[in-house]
Every structure is written in structure tokens, then in C-alpha cells.
Amino acid sequence: MAAYNWSGCSGSWSWSLHLTLPFAQVPPSLRFNPAVHYRAPYPDAYLPGSDQDINAAGTGAGPWTYTFATTGISNADPRRSVVIACCTNGGTTGAVHNSLTANAGAVVFTRIATYAAGTNVISLWEAVVAAGTTLTAPILTIGTGNPARVSMRVHVHGRGTTVNTPIQTFVAAASASLGGTIDVPASGMVIAAFSTSTSVAPVTWTGVVEDYDENSSGSLNISGGTYINTGGAETSRSIIADPSIDAGNMRLLACAWGAPL
């Protein structure tokens, strides 16, 4: 019996050869008959159908919860990771994003990046969700601040969990652009998200390809994009969000992942 396995950035291959007779007794036509299996990488995707905005403040004393509608997350796969960008604006103080869950608490997201200063707050969350094709009623819990507007945007990928130090930056005063640098593994990926409390669409991106760019309300602009590295490892890739006008309370997050599993 012989077996061989290989995996690379574009998928994985394996073959095996099993012999039940002494090799000399095997007919020549059967002496090499490998079984070849190929598994394509799970696709990277931004899911525009999952865009959701809640334009209302929470009621009563905090913490406050914001429940989004059930959203599709593409095909089930043990490699599937779901990344959600959450943006909030309004309230008296920074709205600390405490937790994000779905499927009646069965899916618990990990916060992988955030900036929570001022009234405009942004966070990135990630969870491996192997089963099912939807997230049932994602719930974002806000610890302080009780924002008046909440938005979420969803990506899926099959690259494991985030790697390297994320970009987590902001500028409170009106500014022309906001940026930072991030290391990207070979065949890796970057997801970036940006928000501002000024109506500034369109936003021009450097370093990622734009996936969405919207005013979810008159005072919360959100934008985001992805970058797929088709070559070797990159050091200090520049990621810049440039709104159409000078904007205040700008927030920028970006995280990197490795090659497809």
C-alpha cells in the first residue's frame, strides 16, 4: 500500500494505491492505478445580501442588545469562517461592543479588532461555523453608550483564524484619509472595515478592493473591502480609506488571514 498527500494554496490533492497480491503477480495494466481526490478551497466572499442596519436606540438601562435578522452565510463546510463588521454611532459615550452571538447562543463570535473611542465605534468579529446555511438572529450586545444606529456586514472564507497584528486606528478631527500597515502571509487575505460619523460616500480604498460603501443613515457611513494575496508574504502592506470629503470620527480596522485550508 502506498499513499501520498499534498496541499497548496489552491486546494489539496491525495492519491493512494492498494495492492492485495504480490507485486509480481499483478497484471502490468493494474500496477499503477491511483485514486485521485481534489478538494477546492472554500470561496472567499462578501455577502451583500446580509447588509443590515438598525436605525434606533436601545431602550431602558444597559447593556443593550441589537438583534439582526437571520442572514445567509453560504454553503456549510468545516473550514468556513464567518467575519462580521459591526459599526455604531450615536449615544453619549463610546458604545463598547461586548459580545456577538447567533443561533440562540450556539454560535459565539470572538472580537478580533475594535476601536471604541468617541461616539463612532467599529469592531470585527469571527467564528468558525461549520454547519448550516444561515445565522439565526445575530445579537450584538452593547455595554455602554446606547448608540442610535447599528450596522453589520458579513464575509465568509475558509482560511482558519486571523493572524498577525491588526490595524486598529482612528482620528477624531476632520481628516482627508485614515490608514495603517499590516503584514500579509503568502497566499493570504485582508478584510478591512471603515466608518465615520460624516456622510462621505464614496470612500476610495488603497490596498483592498472595495466590497461595500454606504450611508446606513445620515450620520453613519460604512465601507469595507478585501485583498487576496496571490504571491509571497508581504510586509507592511498599506491599507488606506479616503472619504470624498474631510470626515470626523473616522475608524479603520483591518485583519489578515493565511492561505486557504
Q: Which key phrases capture this entry?
A:
261 residues; mainly beta; 2 domains; five-stranded antiparallel beta sheet; 23 strands; globular; disordered N terminus
Provide a quick synopsis of the model.
The chain has strands at residues 2-8, 11-17, 35-39, 45-46, 52-54, 64-67, 71-72, 81-89, 97-102, 107-108, 110-115, 121-128, 134-135, 139-142, 149-157, 163-171, 178-184, 189-196, 203-206, 209-217, 220-228, 234-243, 250-257.
Would you give an account of this structure?
- This protein is mostly beta strands.
- It has 2 domains: 2-39, no CATH class; 45-257, no CATH class.
- The protein has no helices and 23 strands.
- It has strands at 2-8, 11-17, 35-39, 45-46, 52-54, 64-67, 71-72, 81-89, 97-102, 107-108, 110-115, 121-128, 134-135, 139-142, 149-157, 163-171, 178-184, 189-196, 203-206, 209-217, 220-228, 234-243, 250-257.
- The strands form 6 sheets. Strands 4, 5, 8, 11, 12 and 15 form a 6-stranded antiparallel β-sheet that branches.
- The two termini are 27 Å apart.
- Residues 1-9 and 12-17 have low confidence and may be disordered.
Mind sketching the topology for me?
Elements: E1 2-8, E2 11-17, E3 35-39, E4 45-46, E5 52-54, E6 64-67, E7 71-72, E8 81-89, E9 97-102, E10 107-108, E11 110-115, E12 121-128, E13 134-135, E14 139-142, E15 149-157, E16 163-171, E17 178-184, E18 189-196, E19 203-206, E20 209-217, E21 220-228, E22 234-243, E23 250-257
Antiparallel strand pairs: 1-2, 2-3, 4-15, 5-15, 6-14, 7-13, 8-12, 8-15, 9-10, 9-14, 11-12, 16-23, 17-22, 18-21, 18-23, 19-22, 20-21
